[in-house]
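Continuing the batch. This is chain 6 of the set; chains 1 through 5 are on the previous pages. Same settings as before, nothing changed between runs. Recording input and output for traceability.
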Amino acid sequence: MKNLLSNAFKFTAHGHVSLHIATATEGWTPGLTSLATASRVIAFTIQDTGIGIPADKQRVIFEAFQQADGSTSRKYGGTGLGLTISRELTMRLGGDLRLMRSAPEEGSVFTLFLPIAEPPSAEDGSRIAEKPQPPIRAPRLATSPSQIGQSVIPHPHSALDTSRSAVDDDRDTIQPGDRVLLIIEDDVPFARILLERAQQLGFKGLVALQGMQGLALAQQFKPAAITLDLNLPDVNGWVVLDQLKSRPNRSPVISPSTSSPPPTNQSVACSTAPSPI
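Output for chain 6:
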């Protein structure tokens, strides 16, 4: 929803953007059992009066790294991943995301269909309440004033094992000459989506769930391109970006996430180099 609304506002200079929410009994792609057998389906329809999409480009907008044309990317920015990721996440939720209609200079209509699960019965609720919950651990606080607001960067290879990953990536099959995409992303389902898309485009994929592991993999494999989540659990993503950009033969970095601006006490060199993808 956030991506669809963001696109609608970004591509609409005049007119309006509307969001309509209602139950639906049809309209999704035929053959989707998860929607056809759901007790209820909710449809979120986003309509805008923006630039629209030409008919010959409507088939490719959900493909990775695709936009309506090159001028769209130059004028409005973006990587062409938003709709791809949105559709993949929708499918994993058992739903469907469709472009219902669009025309140049008239606008577009997208609809997100999601099945609604039945609420648990009173008996199920009592069982959930009886299930013991793990203790809540307090976060580790800074032990000295000098640690507050600072990101400590140890050597990338210190106490890091780059031979294994929680996501089954291609690190064991990479050969000289392979095009490699390094994915630094702590959200495992999202990382798997990016990995699958990279493989479909002919890349070998590497996944690092933490920033320090990502730096070590970047140094070891010299990837052709890198996707970087700026909200990482172990180190500030802007600091990781700064480290990546300070290296010789640096790779283009794409950040599909949104984040707050870089810390004022960090010198972050953002890349404007074109991506080879």
